[in-house]
């Protein structure tokens, strides 16, 4: 959390690590949206050429406000967007479709992490447990010891169930996104072409598959195609995950608890926290970054 401590006003001595992480996340989100407010940046990035008004006014504080609900402003809108996609509550106070490409990338990536930042309702809890099991398994391979978690040895069966848990949702979300962008039934509902239209479709399936419920907007999802495929995404990505979760819980419950030994990796230390964060980022990056490159990242580079 040292980076957060170095930013004035972002951290207090009484803040917990979780509070500092949240403040750092919010800072990054606000920066991504406010990056384009200055006249110099709009000239450099070509906003004048496409007719986007970034000027502040009495009803448009800070510019870049279309779809961000002028009653709340840029800061409050993007803070809520980051909270809702990290906490699995699905509420919105602005249109995520109107965010800058980098600003739209943030809520997408927060959902694709598995909503483990705050421990999303249900899915965030067991998602974090699975990531912890994978982290101790990787650590065990690195030191040549049998991995243990909470006094239970992690064997091949537990890792197979954990692998299913982290693979089912991406397969469904990315698979249905690919079907949607390759068919007329999927592309006819988007209101924007190119990379931004791809982001709208990817966000829709990510939200449905990750138990969030928020919408990027800019996509008419009330069609037979999106009703059927969206229902499949919710059914498989949410309920099918319960099967390996229960199988994993049952397998661990049947095992005898063993006392910690010299080769046991403590799971309450800063080292394990760092390893766990690294595993979460690695899994999220390897799974979804290629899709994000085709959407918000390409859109940002084309501005």
What does this structure look like?
The protein folds into 2 domains: 2-103, no CATH class; 123-301, no CATH class. It is 61% helix and 1% strand. The protein has 12 helices and 2 strands; from the N terminus they run H-H-H-H-H-H-E-E-H-H-H-H-H-H. It has helices spanning 2-5, 17-34, 39-44, 73-87, 101-112, 123-143, 156-182, 184-187, 194-209, 224-239, 242-254, 270-301; strands spanning 148-149, 152-153. A two-stranded antiparallel ribbon has the order 1-2. Strand 1 (148-149) and strand 2 (152-153) form a beta hairpin. Helix 4 (73-87) packs parallel to helix 5 (101-112), helix 6 (123-143) crosses helix 7 (156-182) and helix 7 packs antiparallel against helix 11 (242-254).
Task: Annotate the secondary structure layout.
Elements: H1 2-5, H2 17-34, H3 39-44, H4 73-87, H5 101-112, H6 123-143, E1 148-149, E2 152-153, H7 156-182, H8 184-187, H9 194-209, H10 224-239, H11 242-254, H12 270-301
Antiparallel strand pairs: 1-2
Helix pairs in contact: 2-4, 4-5, 5-9, 5-12, 6-7, 6-12, 7-9, 7-10, 7-11, 9-10, 9-12
Name some characteristics of this structure.
single chain; 303 residues; mainly alpha
Order of strands, widest sheet = 1-2
* Total number of helices: 12
Number of strands: 2
The whole-angstrom Rg is 21 Å
Tally of structural domains: 2
Envelope shape: globular
| Biggest sheet character | 2 strands, antiparallel
Amount of beta strand = under 5%
Q: Which structural class do you get from the secondary structure elements? A: mainly alpha
How far is it from the N-terminal to the C-terminal residue, by CA? 33 Å
The pLDDT mean sits at 77
Low-confidence stretches: 1-10, 58-62
Spell out the helices and strands N to C. Answer: HHHHHHEEHHHHHH
Q: Level of helix content? A: 55-70%
